[in-house]
Amino acid sequence: MAGALGGFNAHASNIVTAVYIATGQDPAQNVESSHCITMMEAVNDGKDLHISVTMPSIEVGTVGGGTQLASQSACLNLLGVKGACNDSPGSNSRLLSTIVAGSVLAGELSLMSAIAAGQLVKSHMKYNRSSKDVSKITSSN
């Protein structure tokens, strides 16, 4: 991981940032928290896929700052990690970091599936934000 600036992943930072904004985290912590190595390996003679993410530096908190905003507080409450845990200090933050990593894993699997099925470019071309149908534009080069 030390030699992999940012890691090897499809789009971990997008997922981390989305969860951070939803839960009142500092979005600037995305830089360190998005370090991620995504591994995929065929197992059981190619019948199954084992996927994992390694994220050694997820920085989260469940008290203070943006966690006190109404919507972000409600999201933390929905996830069951709002505030401090008196019985086990830090456990809510550890659980939130696990939720972040699980969300990244789901996003990585979704994006890689779309790429493998050839659907990513097709959907971007179909639902692009341009008023032009860019799928019919030809290059003059």
Protein model, in words:
By secondary structure, this protein is of the alpha+beta class. Helices cover 43% and strands 12% of the residues. It has helices spanning 12-23, 30-33, 70-79, 91-116, 119-126; strands at 7-8, 36-43, 48-54. A three-stranded mixed sheet has the order 1-2-3, covered by helices on one side. A hairpin with a 4-residue loop joins strand 2 (36-43) and strand 3 (48-54). Helix 1 (12-23) crosses helix 4 (91-116). The protein is globular. It starts with 6 loop residues before the first strand and ends in a 15-residue tail after the last helix. 22% of the residues are buried. The mean pLDDT is 89.
Percentage of residues assigned to helices: 40-55%
Question: What string gives the helices and strands in order?
Answer: EHHEEHHH
With helices defined by DSSP (H or I, 4 residues minimum), what is the helix count? 5
Using the CA coordinates, give the radius of gyration.
Answer: 19 Å
Which strand-content bin applies to the residues? 5-15%
Mass-distribution shape: globular
Summed over residues and divided by their number, the pLDDT gives a mean of: 89
User: Class by helix and strand content?
Assistant: alpha+beta
Q: Unreliable runs, pLDDT <50, ≥5 residues?
A: none
Q: What's the β-strand tally? A: 3
Biggest sheet strand line-up: 1-2-3
Biggest pleated-sheet summary: 3 strands, mixed
